Batch of 2 targets.
Target 1
Amino acid sequence: MYRPTVAQIDLAAIRGNLQAIRRCLASGTEVIGIVKADAYGHGAVRVAEVLEQERIRLLAVATPDEAVELREAGIATEILVLGHAPADFVPYAIRHNVTLTTDGHATAVMYAAAAESGRLRVHYKVDTGMGRAGVLADRAVEQIMESATLANIDIVGLYSHLASAESDPDLTAMQAERFAEVVRDVRAGGLHPAMVHLANSAGIFSVHGSPLDGVRPGILLYGLSPAASLAQACRVQPSLSLLTRLEVVKDLPCGHGIGYGRTFVTDRPTRMGLIPIGYADGYPRSLSNRASVIVHGRLVPVVGRVSMDVAAIDVTDVPAATPGDLVTLIGQQDGLCITAAELAELAGTISYEIITGISKRVPRIYIDRQS
Ligand SMILES: Cc1ncc(COP(=O)(O)O)c(C=O)c1O
């Protein structure tokens, strides 16, 4: 590694977050570990290994290829693919204990045909209000019971996804109610899927009533709150820091432009620090002239446009700043902290997009206080 820009992943924080989530749940409720999108930018294999050590019984990814990556790395825990899977993935899924989502009877028929002589495990997805994938709640029972008669298909799970668990209690309650009705009617029809699940991170705190078999936290596992209002609900800590080092420190006279478009012009003699991170690393261009970074225990501003590979910061007020010094873009340093949520706010997005957007060019390095 010749470039000092890294995402540092604290695996012990992920373990701690899992324990904190488990403490918030009714006893017996399983945590389904969401490791899609490369475990929210943390590295799916390393995170899945940790979750496996912590006895998680089900991992969930978005795509078939994400499941293959985990299996090829030796992850043995059952994996649920939340998104669409094509027919030609079905034989692999059967051979490698990968469970697929069916969004209705037509997909179940397609899977059954592709399963040949094997048996495919599926979770049925019900659309209770999200308006994306899943069989609409009012047609769900009929389709689920029809699919249950298919040879080669085992319906082992039933789930739905919440649209606004962090912000709309009425919609959440309505979705939970619709889902509970489907679950009740399916059970009354004699089908008992072992894993019934609804709540994402926010849903853990906003779905009230009878506990289901499992919850599906993603963002909370990585120590971020799905919404500012829920930040205190569960004691988790961020597991990702984005770090680099000062590459160049240069004196610029007053009135000198910095970066593309000359969007920043110095209004005093300025010590400009150049850091090797840009939008191609996932540090959004929309943070130009907005974000701050931590250098030597001080917050200093990003000045000028964030470009593809580098960004400039103003270190005039940090006389000690020298090339090679640590620069924290996300994370804690010397008692200061910059969160992905704060950057998201400045960039006009959500913390999910900030952490999943850190690109492949940024090496992930792992620390684990337990090892
Ligand atoms: C089906 C499903 N369940 C759970 C999650 C996890 O959501 P969160 O990260 O908000 O906990 C996601 C993420 O988008 C999802 O698509």
Target 2
Amino acid sequence: MAERELVLTAVTGPGVLRQKQHDYYLLRIKAVAGDLSAVQLGCIAEVAEQYGRGVVHLSTRQGVEIHHVHHDNLESAQLALSQAGVEMGASGPRVRVIVACPGEATCKWGVVDTKKIATELDRRFFYKEAPSKFKMAVTGCANNCTKANENDIGVRGAIEPDWVASSCCDCQLCLSLCPAKAIVRDETGSNGTREYHYRIDQESCINCSACTQHCPGEAWVVGRQGYTLFIGGTMGKTPRFATVLKKLVESEEELYDLIEKTLTCYRTHGRKKERFGHTIDRIGIATVREEILGGQ
Ligand code: SF4
Ligand code: SF4
Ligand code: SF4
């Protein structure tokens, strides 16, 4: 069922949406960063069995939905869920449930704590009003498993590498390994006095950590670390890839501050039902940057 249709017919509060079948509803459950406890899962299964049709639907945004709940059972079903600490998700023109990959907690490629960021984003922004739906995703590294740049706000773990000359054997592996071809090898001198030096073309670097993870001599090390912040991504009928607002945000507080300012900018300029990326295209990225970043 198209989400717009569901949103238009949302009835009894957060996460409860009317189905096309008369008198039947679906319950959209909140799973921040895709996490639910075993106790919560057990309760969801019981509610699906007792009040639905014994099946749950896993959404594309890490959500769990119980479909086919009759109107007469809505209250009992919601009460049973809340008693197990299961919260409802969101619909309509609001900040939706925050999506995240496992990140550094369990993934060997992760460079940031995605769960921690998602939990804090949930605490600060979940269910806040916006001109249209507003989606956020956190992804632990440039592999981008949660598709950060398809979201209104995308947070991607990022590093900026430094080169340690004394550890480098000049094997040149990093030149072919860098996916952005951002590593440059300079050579000076001639036979006998030949010297080499590696550096990063910062404009091209996507802060992915392939060099720091794969250099055999550990000559590429993590210099600075943080988050690449994307804004204005959306899918739907008129998809738009997000724009990089800032390549390397180094502190969590700055990250949350920039996201707060982004929401304010959207509320100021966004038209009803207009996704943020389309607002950016209408008013211009320069205006948006100025409002969010100021003189940065
Ligand atoms: S985005 Fe990176 S950290 Fe997250 S699951 Fe994928 S590979 Fe792991
Ligand atoms: S992969 Fe490491 S050791 Fe090899 S050239 Fe690059 S920096 Fe030097
Ligand atoms: S961080 Fe990634 S893009 Fe940047 S230089 Fe290293 S391998 Fe290349």
